[in-house]
């Protein structure tokens, strides 16, 4: 059972309240595809991914980024039950999408960097630590149903 | 592999820091100890409290090494040879793959908080590749 202190919950909700799920999601996914180009293997039907500019402007990347981050929002509403929240998605990523769980960790770290660039000095070490914990737990929950 | 464009972006980015490099080193370490407590096991002899002189000093050293690496980006193996020996034979930090991954993440967060939008996806990609290359060199002599 994961324990979240009052301070951690506050750091999560105060950051999340100021995040544009659409912008942030699009940016995080685009950066995943740019910084770790092999992740493009999961998105072969997304059209033009030939350059950073193409990726950033790609409407399917934007749409999917928004989907991914919206799901993150669900996790934040259910911090005490991440496993339950991600149970179906975990099965999906394993059985249908065949995504190596290492990619969840990569996306999580990228999300933290996107938040850092957005919030600049307000993204304090304590804030980062809380979010690294959250993305780590989300990655873990997503990997849980793999077999 | 670091392309010519990557190298240019890294050198430009480093140039934009305007003297803040040393602070960034200390901040990256502080963030690393905060987000990844097991990394503290390599510094039992340090005062790790906020604002610690030792952390500041060590942060300066780390950044100086990275600066040297950036100035010699075409020959990282040679530029970091001494450090590679140190990490392999004396410090024996767990294979840099792990700790450097945490330091890399925290350094990038420190850079992103300072550069904001200027920490573009292209710069992010170049820095990530650079830190991977540094980690590889530091791991060369492990076994």
UniProtKB/TrEMBL annotation, chain A:
Subunit field text: Heterotetramer of two alpha chains and two beta chains.
Top-rank taxon: Eukaryota
Keyword Glycosyltransferase belongs to the record: no
Organism field: Cardinalis cardinalis (Northern cardinal)
Domain Globin span(s) in chain numbering: 3-147
GO BP term (any one): hydrogen peroxide catabolic process
InterPro entries: Globin, Globin-like_sf, Globin/Proto, Hemoglobin_b, Hemoglobin_oxygen_transport
SUPFAM superfamilies referenced in this protein's UniProt entry, alphabetically: Globin-like
Membership in a protein family: Belongs to the globin family.
One Pfam family, short name: Globin
GO molecular function, one term: haptoglobin binding
Name of this chain's protein: Hemoglobin subunit beta
GO cellular component term, pick one: haptoglobin-hemoglobin complex
Lineage: Eukaryota, Metazoa, Chordata, Craniata, Vertebrata
Coiled coil: none
Summary of the function given for this chain in its UniProt record: Involved in oxygen transport from the lung to the various peripheral tissues.
Keywords: Heme, Iron, Metal-binding, Oxygen transport, Transport
Keyword Transport: yes
From TrEMBL, chain B:
Record keywords, A-Z: Heme, Iron, Metal-binding, Oxygen transport, Transport
One cellular-component annotation, GO: haptoglobin-hemoglobin complex
One record GO biological process: hydrogen peroxide catabolic process
Pfam entry (one): Globin
InterPro entries: Globin, Globin-like_sf, Globin/Proto, Hemoglobin_a-typ, Hemoglobin_oxygen_transport
Gene Ontology molecular function, alphabetical: haptoglobin binding; heme binding; metal ion binding; organic acid binding; oxygen binding; oxygen carrier activity; peroxidase activity
Gene3D superfamilies on file: Globins
Signal peptide: none
Quaternary structure annotation from Swiss-Prot or TrEMBL: Heterotetramer of two alpha-D chains and two beta chains.
Family: Belongs to the globin family.
Job description of the protein: Involved in oxygen transport from the lung to the various peripheral tissues.
Name recorded for this polypeptide: HBAD protein
Originating organism: Cardinalis cardinalis
Residue ranges of every copy of the Globin domain listed in the record: 1-143
